[in-house]
Design a protein that fits this description.
The complex is a heterodimer of chains A (314) and B (374).
Chain A (H helix, E strand, L loop, with lengths): L2 H6 L7 H35 L4 H6 L11 H9 L2 H32 L5 H13 L6 H21 L16 H25 L3 H9 L4 H12 L1 H17 L2 H6 L8 H11 L4 H33 L4
Helix pairs in contact in A: 4-14, 5-8, 5-11, 6-8, 8-11, 11-14, 13-14
Chain B lengths: L1 H41 L20 H7 L2 H33 L6 H13 L2 H12 L4 H23 L6 H9 L3 H6 L4 H8 L11 H8 L18 H24 L4 H9 L4 H12 L1 H16 L3 H6 L11 H10 L4 H28 L5
Helix pairs in contact in B: 1-17, 2-17, 3-4, 3-11, 3-14, 3-16, 4-11, 6-7, 12-13, 14-17, 16-17
The chains are: A mainly alpha (314), B mainly alpha (374).
Chain lengths: 314, 374
């Protein structure tokens, strides 16, 4: 491509001026890279540092190191912020949600890649379109749908004499079950895309040979497909997990009770109610960011792989 | 034999449905139903309450959309969404490309380290990050402190310089100090600031300062005080949000682009370099064209993400002050939760979906025009 343009400036890199430019360029590259990397982590380090200051210390000095080490902020934040409720909830949603996404997506991926009939193409296509849809734009209709289904089911059960008050009945709205359903559904499109493409790479002859030997599809799935899918399942889990852990817009509208809140919900509530209690606020934020920071440090290689693999399709 | 084959085909079919239906039903449940429901309610006069068997409601046509198009808050929100799309597509992507290229070509060493650092913000909850940035941009936040720290330092340096030649102040010395002081304080010293300074600010009214260190300590209070108005002034309130948007997700594109650059045949690049092409030329004429497909996909991801941004802005400003940082999703949320206006809120949901698909379609069209690869 455009070799003429390259020819024209060919001598550029070999002249002394060119070499000076190259050194300058390298210095500039390091400067820009260093500056942006510093920018990326400095605010987070600043946050962690300030979580060990007392509130008055923070107000007087936002830049310096803590004058007095104040780890008690964490104890206060943990208690007032109800983290003993939020943290287990987040773990539950994330683990069950991620497992559900991976399981359903692997099953469907097998169907789309190896069993495809006439319906496979449009069905798979609809999932691929779903990658571009974000559920957060659907939070209001989703809220209406879940709460109205509860009302409808509630009235049905009232008319059957099973329960007394249709408004007290909750299956989807304000329940763990509803949150899990929504989280699994929202994670499916990307997971199905990645897993289907992966299973397509598994030789069909393996499946056919097993069929000729008389194996059922369930057996083939469990004995051939699932073991071969371990790498892609790992990748998909690792990119689904932070998404569920950090999700806010949906759980914000489908959960009202404190007992069901996740970390992001609880942290925002905490921050709103104690805006001047800086020390505890910062401690709460650090509690909120540490799990994912640790997760990232532990799985950086896999996360990097997942990010580059998960975004190949639009 | 024939019957055996049909029974196999039957088995294939039922296996297909058994494997694909659980996912598909859930997908319909959380994506397709809400979209249909949203379209229906946006055309109705539904007021909340029980939808089936409650207060009756009916389809009333496109009234909500015409209300929406006349609502200045809607255009404001749409404009903000477009700002975010622009800063994402023309900020995150080019920056991501530049960093990925520097790492890929090993212009900078320890590429993996830099890439790892740049991605850190993307893995953390935007709620946590949004609140954190709120503290940084606040009128009495970190940025204000950093700037004011510099201002104080400048004033102290001026005082030190004056005291170097002795502890007695001259008129010139005072004039020099006044230059580094808060203009509003200087204004209060009267028409002749030097005289005012002597009258009001000197301890004991004496030009010879007995304790310069204590004097400097007192004078620190008169350093210029800057109060950032990022979060309070309406016409600049979007700037922090756009900055954080750029800050948060650029690292994701560094990883994406770098991973795809690794797939380029390195011999082509080596050959170009031997032929004397500069790094700039290599990036422009070899790497950029090779990545065009990925760039388009990244732009689509970027647009879809920007159109749906909610949590970050909610944590930073909740759409304020005076709704100037509202994006469509926040406007939709406010209309439903505070206004209880479900038809209007669902009309906004429909607009978000249609608008993101229009933008994605335009991106695809641009790709075709430019003859990019599939």
């Amino acid at each position: 491509m455009s070799t003429t343009a390259i020819d024209r400036e060919k001598s550029f890199g070999t002249t002394p001026v060119g070499r000076a430019f190259a050194i300058f360029g390298k210095a500039l590259a390091y400067a820009v890279m260093g500056l942006f990397s510093f920018m990326a982590v400095f605010p987070i380090l600043w946050l962690i540092m300030n979580s060990f200051k007392s509130s008055s210390d923070y107000q007087l000095d936002k830049i310096g190191l803590p004058k007095e080490f104040f780890p008690i902020n964490y104890q206060g934040a943990w208690q007032i912020g109800d983290f003993s409720i939020l943290l287990p909830n987040s773990v539950f949603y994330t683990v069950v949600g991620t497992a559900g996404v991976v399981l359903l997506a692997t099953l469907a991926g097998f169907a789309f890649a190896k069993l495809g009939g006439k319906a496979a193409k449009p069905m798979y296509g609809s999932f691929v379109i779903g990658i571009m849809l974000s559920l957060s734009s659907l939070m209001i209709p989703l809220f209406l749908q879940l709460s109205q289904m509860d009302l409808a089911l509630g009235s049905l059960f009232v008319s059957m004499g099973l329960i007394k008050d249709s408004r007290a009945f909750h299956l989807f709205y304000n329940t763990r079950f509803g949150v899990i359903l929504v989280y699994i559904g929202s994670g499916l499109p990307l997971a199905i895309y990645m897993i289907t493409e992966y299973i397509r790479g598994i030789p069909t002859s393996l499946v056919e040979a097993a069929r000729i030997d008389g194996a059922s599809y369930w057996r083939i799935f469990a004995r051939i497909i699932l073991p071969m899918c371990v790498p892609i399942i790992t990748t998909v889990s690792i990119i689904t997990l932070p998404g569920i852990w950090n999700e806010f817009a949906l759980i914000n509208i489908i959960v009202g009770k404190l007992d069901l809140q996740s970390l992001p919900l609880g942290i925002l509530r905490f921050s709103g109610s104690r805006s001047a209690d800086y020390g505890k606020q910062f401690a709460a934020l650090v509690i909120g960011l540490l799990p994912m920071l640790i997760f990232y440090m532990a799985f950086q290689k896999q996360i990097t792989k997942g990010v580059s693999g998960g975004a190949v399709k639009g | 034999m024939a019957s055996a084959r049909t029974s196999t085909r039957q088995e294939d079919k039922s296996a297909y449905w058994a494997f694909s239906l659980p996912a598909f039903i859930l997908y319909i449940f959380v994506f397709a139903f809400p979209i249909i429901l949203s379209a229906v309610i946006s055309l109705s006069n539904y007021k909340g309450g029980q939808m089936f068997g409650g207060e009756p409601w009916a389809i009333t046509g496109f009234k909500q959309y015409s209300i929406l198009f006349q609502d200045s808050a809607f255009w404001q929100a749409l404009k903000n969404n477009i700002y975010i799309v622009l800063v994402s597509v023309f900020g995150q992507l080019p920056l991501g490309f530049v960093f990925a290229y520097l790492i890929y070509r090993k212009v900078v060493k320890f590429g993996e380290f830099w890439q790892g650092i740049l991605y850190v913000p993307a893995i953390i909850s935007v709620i946590v990050l949004g609140i954190m940035w709120k503290f940084i941009f606040a009128p009495n936040g970190l940025i204000a402190d950093l700037i004011n720290f510099g201002n104080t330092h400048k004033l102290v340096a001026a005082l030190d310089a004056v005291f170097k030649s002795g502890s007695t102040l001259s008129d010139d010395g005072i004039r020099y100090i006044l230059k580094s002081m808060d203009p509003s304080v200087v204004g209060m010293l009267g028409d002749n600031p030097v005289a005012g300074f002597k009258e009001q600010l000197l301890p004991g009214g004496s030009l010879s300062i007995a304790d310069p260190v204590a004097f400097i300590g007192d004078m620190k209070n008169y350093a210029p005080k800057w109060t950032p108005e990022f979060m309070t002034k309406q016409n600049v309130a979007m700037i922090p949000i756009m900055f954080v948007t750029l800050w948060c997700w650029t690292g994701m594109y560094v990883i994406l682009f770098n991973a795809n650059m690794q797939k380029i045949d390195s011999e082509v690049i080596e050959a170009a370099r031997i032929d004397g092409a500069t790094e700039m030329q290599t990036a422009r004429y070899i790497v950029l064209p090779a990545l065009s497909g990925i760039l388009i996909n990244a732009a689509i991801l970027c647009i879809a993400g920007s159109m749906n941004q909610f949590a970050l802005i909610w944590a930073m400003t909740e759409g304020g002050p005076m709704n100037v940082t509202e994006v469509l999703s926040i406007y939709m949320y406010r209309t439903a939760t505070i206004g209880q206006n479900y038809p209007l809120s669902n009309a906004i949901a429909m607009i978000i979906i249609v608008f993101s698909f229009i933008l994605i379609g335009l991106t695809k069209l641009a790709e075709k025009r430019m003859g990019g690869k599939e």
